[in-house]
Task: structure prediction
Amino acid sequence: MGAQYYGADSENGDRIDDPSDDALFMLISDLNDSDNTFVVVQPVEDDPAWFTSVAVLNEGGFEIVRRDTTRNEHEVTTATSINDIAHDLTIWMAARDIPGQPTKQVSKFSITT
Result:
């Protein structure tokens, strides 16, 4: 079994460590508007620097929150496609600094011809 870097927890108590795109899809698909209204994904540490959450909206669809204090990011969006949400969150989380893993370096460059 590999190291646990982050976990996804839903309101009903379901937990998946280091969730894949498919696992996030499953957790979001299980959300409802009565007793399992949200899922939160964050690093396994005492004071996580980032998190993301997906919550059911009363009018349908989902609210997605992405917060990363190290990058001064806080974005709130809405969406209806569970597949798109799971995919987008997987990409977003891959760019985060994960405890126990080397820090990712992001650089901008241009290609000239």
Notes: The chain has a mean pLDDT of 87.
